[in-house]
């Protein structure tokens, strides 16, 4: 546990969180035509901070159930049926979140590769 | 792993949009289907969407939606179009035939909206699939 924390750093939590955020944004997009649906998003910074603090206190990432800080998005314009999803914003956020996910993934992947090459010794 | 829940969410969105498209195509196909009585005449169908919610409240753990569902397909209660066609075999005593309350322009715009939503859901699904494939290739 201590080892994996020190090797992957913040990216282990960041990867899990951006996965969560991706499913939240996917849910907003799926409900783009649902009357009265309010778009949700999570406070990434606050959640990542909470997660890393938890990790530092010695909980493993598996049993640290994340305290979800999910908030409603402030809409630019509410649809006539009360729906606050703006598909363009959600798509942009989804693409942004995907890039963040890939960034964290790349860092983790590089760490795994370094460990492997260290173990092989070649 | 919450990435895998995207498959369910986007899948539910696609299935809901396809039900909506189904209703729209039925409306367009039956735009001229008259009946013997106004009650027998085809009425436009509308699908009702609602979000699938988890058991917990906002601000608590695991507060993530589970996609969208079609709770009901209802008949539109807009008035039927009455057309004066005395020679029509189904005309009433005054010579009026009641045609369905289907507005083709409305149906076409609804269809475009549904197909755009379907596309967006497919894109989300595709992205999730790519990310999952990356996870499977971790460390290689």
Describe this structure in words.
The complex is a heterodimer of chains A (122) and B (140). By secondary structure, chain A is mostly helical. Chain A contains four helices and two strands; from the N terminus they run ααβαβα. Chain A has a two-stranded antiparallel sheet. In chain A, helix 2 packs antiparallel against helix 3. Chain A is elongated. By secondary structure, chain B is α+β, with helices and mostly antiparallel strands. Helices cover 43% and strands 16% of the residues of chain B. Chain B is built from two helices and four strands. In chain B, the strands form two sheets. In chain B, strands 1-2 form a two-stranded antiparallel ribbon. The radius of gyration of chain B is 22 Å and the shape is elongated. The chains are: A mainly alpha (122), B alpha+beta (140). The interface between A and B is large, with 37 and 42 residues.
